[in-house]
Amino acid sequence: MENLLSRITLNSEINHGKPCIRNTRYMVEAMLEYLAGGDTVDDILLEFPDLDRDDILACIAYATASMKFKDIEVPAA
After folding, report:
1. Which residues are paired to 68 by β-bridges?
2. Which domains does the chain have, with CATH numbers?
3. DSSP codes, the chain
4. What's the pLDDT tens digit per position in 23-34?
5. Cα gap 10→15, rounded to integer Å
């Protein structure tokens, strides 16, 4: 997992310091939104050919790691 997480960068010069893939403008948040919206990893890779499978897995790994440190509020149904 450490190897995957090394693909995620935080740079105040890129996307206001939000987590991105390899110092690009591809935000982790955006990739997770695609996945949550029903896109597959293959769908994302077709749309963004300069990314690879490990980049998307890194986004998932980052989200998983961040869950260990923060409480998430979920609105009541």
Report:
1. none
2. 2-66 (1.10.10.10)
3. -HHHHTTEE--TTSGGG--EETTSS-BHHHHHHHHHTT--HHHHHHH-TT--HHHHHHHHHHHHHHHTT--------
4. 999 999 999 999
5. 9
